[in-house]
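#onboarding

Welcome to the new folks! Below is a worked example of what a typical request in this channel looks like: someone posts a single protein sequence, and someone else replies with the predicted structure as tokens. Don't worry about understanding the tokens yet, we'll cover that in week two.

Example request:
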Amino acid sequence: MTISASQREADAAASANVPSPAHQPLRYEATVPRALVHRAAVAEVFLTDSRPSPTLPDTFEIAAQLPRAHIMGESATAHDFLLLVEVIRQSGVYIAHKYEDVPLDTSFIFRGLRTWLSDLSAIRTGDRPAEAVVTLTCVPQRKRNGRVQALDFHGTAAVNGRIALQIEGGLAFFSKSVYQAMRSRQRAKLEGQTGTLPSHLRADPQTVGRRNPMNVVITKPLLAGGSALSATVIADESHPHLFDHRLDHIPGNLLLEGARQLATASVATLHSIAADGLQVISLDTDFREFAELDLPTRAVATVEQFRQDEALGTLVVPVVVEVTQAERTVASFRLEVAQ
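Example response:
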């Protein structure tokens, strides 16, 4: 069959009008494969699509749907801060697998994360699930063989078209053999110190800004001198979000939730404010070592002085939370809490 010149011109014109992957609109119809974000439950996958940025080099746009209801999202008026952090985590892991060719059986460790709200009204819930876009510019660190061993990133998260969060962070990647060697070395150092832990009573949900007792991950906060309060972190491995799959250590999001609860309770106690009226507006994390499931975990929060956040137009209280096991710091957090 002979194709006429006019037909060839029409076909060329049609091809020219097909947008490239970078210019395709992001979709919110279905989630990405759960393996690409290291989740076992499909319900715990928030990402739906991605594309390289059409205008910025080394930058990727990740679509996510924020549910109106979630086991951790107890507020009826705003999207939960921990879930927003989980969307950021999933975005970093997804970029590493999809765009940097990091193997699926690689272990990931959050080297650090700093994120802060730039628009409180942008995270308010509406009458339907919100559409988020996480935009991250990535700087991979490669081995001599070209494989990525770490990924630094910075960017923003927009909710329904409005920039809500600023983001800076980094991930490190380890093969199974390297990860197992790291864990074996740490476990060897703790020989004779680990064992079955006693059952602890959880704090009253209202005192830590929670409603569902299952979501409480610390004991009753106690005064620890000056402007400090302390509590024991409770790692309940039956929790469907914090332990979406089996782990050999306490996950970072549980430590973060414990820090948030202790910071909230500390500010509420020292300033006579209802805990359920407080929310975290910024977070700076430093994960130093693996937190073991069979060691007592103590968290101490030190409340600092109020300051005025000019961008948000509200008073905020900085709180530093140190998490320790066997007299060593495994993680530290600096949070800012606003009313």
